[in-house]
Amino acid sequence: MSERITEQVPLLSIRDLSVAFRTQEGLREVLHGVSFDVMPGETVAIVGESGSGKSTTATAIVNLLPGTGEVTAGSITLEGRELTTLNRREIEAVRGRDIGFVPQDPMSNLNPVWSIGFQVKEAIRANGIAQGREAAKARTVEVLQQAGLADAEKRLHQFPHQFSGGMRQRALIGMGLAADPKLLIADEPTSALDVTVQRVILDHMASLTRDKGTSVLLITHDLGLAAERADKIIVMNGGNIVEAGPSRQILEDPQHPYTKRLVSAAP
Ligand code: ADP
Ligand code: MG
After folding, report:
1. What pTM was estimated for this model as a whole?
2. Measured in angstroms, how far is the CA atom of residue 104 from the centroid of ligand 2?
3. From the CB of residue 253, how many other CB atoms can be counted at a distance below 10 Å?
4. DSSP one-letter string for 190-236
5. Alpha carbon of 226 to those of 14, 24, 124, 218: distances in Å?
6. How many angstroms separate the alpha carbon of residue 237 from the centre of ligand 2?
7. Which ligand is nearest to the CA of 103?
8. Which pLDDT band, with edges at 50, 70 and 90, does 256 fall under?
9. Angle CA 232–235–238, to nearest 5
10. Could you tell me which of 65, 177, 184, 190 has the fewest CB atoms within 10 Å of its CB?
């Protein structure tokens, strides 16, 4: 039986991925040959302290590295298709339809002068999910309702600053899931929120992805949260994966000194 499980084909496969940022002193490598898989329907968490390379990994996958960042080695495949060599148009299509991305900083990814409804609708239209004005509007309301936003229809004309942090995060998760992607990458989706709101939103995200069998790459600095939410945990430190395994194993029987330290520091 275990043989069959190992034969399953990964949805996302990262091999020996290195990323560097161009600085005045030259290239500074911040990811040093990272490898891991995400299987269909699996939730995988990447944990590690600030600066360990979590966001760099996430943005490299969707080709949204900050301006001076570049993949210097390795491969990223989604269902066997190499993503690092796609052109801009091709990767945009992948990002819209196959991979939903919830970036770490919601305010830098929502335009303050556009209404929430307009931004969600534009994302939907750009991805070709709904053609035509009426269809796009209907899908916008549906996406926001599914994301758990009360009175979604009334809120379409509101601007990001009129939303609470939790509501903005719900809107972004809704946008990430609008195209029913195979993979949702959520970078610290609830870190800015208080624990109660965090729980409600993560529960909601989990129910949406469970229903659809969506794989999730959940990025968080919170080991407790990762253990609670993920099937598998990847521990990063200084741009390397120091340990990876089933969540329970990481929590109950950590091997690497860094993981042991994280576990003992977790509340
Ligand atoms: P995490 O998400 O785990 O907090 P990051 O992936 O954001 O970590 O950062 C990993 C490393 O890459 C850090 O050393 C950080 O300083 C560096 N880094 C991140 N973004 C940039 C950038 N735009 N330019 C230069 N270095 C960066
Ligand atoms: Mg980060």
Report:
1. 0.92
2. 6
3. 12
4. TTTS-HHHHHHHHHHHHHHHHHHT-EEEEEES-HHHHHHH-SEEEEE
5. 20, 36, 30, 8
6. 12
7. 2
8. very high
9. 155
10. 65
